[in-house]
Amino acid sequence: MFTCVVCGNSRVMMGDCPHCGTSDLPIADTDTVTINLELGSPTTEEALDVLTAHIRSAGDLKIRTLVVIHGYGSTGKGGSIKRMVRDSLEKNFFADRVDEYIHGEDLAHRNNLYLDLVKRRPSLKNVFKSFKEGNPGMTILLMRH
Ligand SMILES: [Zn+2]
Fold first, then answer.
1. pLDDT tens, 41-75?
2. Fold of 31-143
3. Domain definitions of the chain by residue range
4. Ligand 1 geometric centre to CA of 25 (Å)
5. Cβ atoms within 10 Å of 55's Cβ, excluding its own
6. Contact 114, 103 (CB under 8 A)
7. If 144 and its partner were Cys, which of 99, 100, 118, 128 is the partner (CB 3.0–4.6 Å)?
């Protein structure tokens, strides 16, 4: 999905290239990136840092859609990361980069919101094959460009 501008190897969006070590941003051959904020069981603060870094890089790379997996639950880590993501969006922390956001649970199978979204962002159809629409553990960010 991403190619190193220095060595040409494929790599992930964030961090230095694992092949040549450059910190230059890679080339994206996708317009949609999925991030899982639960990976590595971070604290809520660490998850916010990861989210912020991904939103910045995605903006720089002209990624159009970020699918944020944050888990859910009324208690525990899943719940607190979800609240952090939703709160930071509602407080417009990322308004310079994020144009709109959609709560996973609002996307019922083939409802109007779902149909409108996949029309505007066709690559999300593939994402929804692995993460069921209607999943309250995700939020979809439509980036500003
Ligand atoms: Zn490289």
1. 899 999 999 999 999 999 999 999 999 999 987 55
2. Ribosomal Protein S8; Chain: A, domain 1 (3.30.1370)
3. 1-29, 31-143
4. 10
5. 22
6. no
7. 99
User: Ligand 1 centroid to 16 CA: how many Å?
Assistant: 8
**Is pLDDT of 132 > 80?**
no
- Residue written as token pair 């109007």: 112
Of the candidates 30, 84, 21, 25, the residue with the CA atom closest to the CA atom of residue 57: 25
**pLDDT, mean over the chain:** 91
115 CA from centroid of ligand 1 (Å): 38
Distance CA 120, CA 114 (A): 10
**What residues are paired with 139 via a beta bridge?**
68, 103
Distance 113 CA to ligand 1 centre (A): 39
pTM for this entry: 0.89
State the Cα–Cα distance between residues 129 and 4, nearest whole angstrom.
Answer: 28
User: For the chain, how far is it from start to end, CA to CA, in angstroms?
Assistant: 20
CB 58 within 8 A of CB 47: no
22 alpha carbon – ligand 1 mean position (Å) = 6
